[in-house]
Amino acid sequence: MQDIKEFQVFIASPSDVEEEKKIVRKVCENLNKDPLVRGKRIQLEHKGWEDLAPSAGRPQDTINSLQEKCDIFVCILHRKYGTGTMEEFWNAYESWKNFKKPGILFYFKKAEISSLSDLEDPQLKKVFELKDKIQKDELLLYGNFTTPEDFETILSDHFKKLISDLLSKPAEEPEKLVKKSGARIPEKYRAWLNDTTSCMDIDCIRQDSRVINVSLPEIFQPLFSQDPDKEPEKRKKKDPSARLDIAEAPVPIEALAGKGKTLLVIGTAGSGKTTLARHMARTIVNNTSPYFEKDLLPVLIFFKDLKFYPYQGKTPCAEAANDILGRYCSKYLSGFLDLETILLFCEKGKCVFFLDGLDEAEQELRDFAAVSFADFRVSCDPVKLVLLGRPHGAEGKVGERFGTRVGRVLDLTHEQVEAFIGNWFSHVYSEGSVSGETLAGSMKGDIRAREDIDELKKNPLLLTAMCILYHDLKELPNQRADLYNRYVERLFSKFGDERIKVTNFMMNLAHSMFEAGERGIDEADAVKTLKNHYKIEDMDKTHEDLFKRIEPATGLLKFESGRYKFIHLTFQEFLTARYLVDHTEDSPFDIISPHIEHKRYEEVVKLFIGFLSIRNSGGANKITRQILEENPGEPKVDNYILAAEALLDIHKDNRQEKVVDLAKDRMQALIRKGEAPNILLRAGEAMGRLGFAAGLEEFVAIPGGTYDLDGLGKKKIQAFEISRFPVTNLWYAQFIKDGGYETEAFWSGEGRKWLGQNKVSEPGSWRERRFNCPTSPVVGVSWFEAEAFCRWLETKNGDGFSCHLPTEEEWQATAAGKEKREYPWGDGIDPQKCNYDETKLGKPSPVGIFSGGKTPEGVHDLGGNVWEWTRSGYHQKKTYEDFPYDPEMDELLRKKDFAQYSNKLLEKDRIVPALRGGSFSIGSGNCRCTFRSDSVPDERDLNIGFRCARIKL
What pLDDT is recorded for position 208? Predict the structure, then answer.
């Protein structure tokens, strides 16, 4: 008589599907009674973790041993992911892929989504991700169900099919399959690595005390470095942390890691090194990396986790690395990856090791591990080895063994910053969310408009903190001091109950360094400061240990040339200013007045006044007034500028009107006196940002008659008026507010084509602080936009004038006059006359600040500052009401193909507008009244603006 064959059925599930587990047992019992099943001499034996007796050791290991013997594996998920359940599943899945045993049945109970918090439940998200994977793979029998009755029906049918398959296709012998398959990445390791690298490694992302999981694949931005393989031969091998002046275009660090055998990645705190390592490991294990070959085994090791290793007294060598790997697997990768698998991949040269956090281990351990892994890599060439850490982690043996190929992490580019913001808000608010897109757009605009936050977006950690701040506030605080304060508070919030102590320590550290005139401090001195402000409760810990924990976590310090420094001086200045405010007992002026005369304290004074205004706006205004009232007979130029700029660090609603008026008066006096160009720039910008607007829209009458215009000939010109200044940002803002971009009547025929193609609603530079001072010329505007402004102005004023862009004849008649001046003001040019390259301002200046550079009629800024559009054809030297829009030229500009663009621009039959006046970025010759240039009408260069002309109808 034929023996009965027992099929072991293992049931794996979290605690939220208890009823369904009972149904599995019930179905097994019913099938055992089914005549068709009994006729095949089959008996189903069902077991789960509940059937195990207690034993010594790790409980999950005991459960796994039971699962390993099963013939059929049944897994059920609802809302809980269940770490143990998943370990059991991945063990079974790996066995099935290798040996076609056990047969696997997988079921998902429908999870109702009733709120946004459900979508953000990390357990439920993992369930959905696994469900998608299993459905896409189409390798396993799986089912979805809603009711217990549905589940029982589906399960019974699947059991019958699986039993039939198991009887007709017996599993192969494991030994044969191992030989046939070679090195395989364990599925449980792949799943574990995907799970542990699924979210960004962020210590503190909270909203209303609720954790927000930020997906690494969706947020990740590539990091770039100069290409070390193209560095000059003079490269300093012994000092890999030294920056080199390399002209080569940056390349993705992933590409460098993929094409070389070793790579040492160096970056400051928060530069994204760990995120990069996790991203590379994740893409490699999933065979989705475009930079690494397929079927590699990534092994991710953190130096902070090697402290357990007893390296003392041992000789660093390949065998030592082998020992480290074995112990590391046992301690941190048990159940997922073992040394035997790693060595099998190494034998085939199919392994990539990522050793992250070089700076997080003592130098002796770091040196030991670096030498050992260097030797280990050579012994199993071409295995790859990527080490990552901060600059001081690359010293010693690390630099000696790996310093010939170094990738230094570069700051994020403007494009990367905007991409990161878009991805961040898209993910946090779910893909396609209007709220997410709106917030991302607003934040991008805000950061373009703020030069004072450049240092808050240079690396992923700092940018992430700013995204969190924007996520919470829905805007960036207008006050610089308020922004930095909230920002620092956000960074330090990760310390929980220790936050206040850490904040006090960092303020004292910043202040003591600043008082001493130091940008860096020795560790011993930093620890001494820490001892004064931080009492340790745990007797087993030292202040040295505490400092090493705090220092990297703040994100504000870096270790360079043997000393700790703030990553940027602004953070040190703000924390110094806050320290001074916190230690003000009586008169704030008495605290800050000793520092007003010292140039080094300029930013500290402004941040002090700004931070004080948050708590005491009256006191902040009083300090500013006191500075402005000092020695009116003998003005202290630097002090007046300092006070006016400090007012900008006070929220506009908290500025006292009398103090603002006093500041504007002082700035006007400096401009009238004709101070140095850099002082004129600061005075003009302070006035503009404090609300000065007098006379910016005035026109000046230019007499008609015959003008002998060099280069254009004798021209009879009708009397006209021209705007005293180029059109300012403040004036152009009215055009935008009045619907200038939406009103078709303001646009020429070609202008409508251009607008329809480009879909813009503001100048290209509109939100960049460098270009958006209210009283500076508007730039980044095409000819079409300038012409539309003139049509709008004519409609708006309705005063009997016809408004237009000036012709070349009108412009040159205004600039040179009938006396044919060389420059608008007369003969000769120097940096006190106008804003050109030798003035060295590097950007457009507020209109009218060069009082010596106006024409006798009082027209300002015709020479230098910004090029000005005209309505004359450059090649034809005649007037046009419109200029043809050429999308091909537009595309060449977009691609920055300037060679082909310039060649086409020279074509004599091409109709393009002439430009006049020169600009801040070009030489003195271009500022002459007769100099002509040209550009396509769709050009939106940051050194091109315009002014209006008008004729009485």
Answer: 39
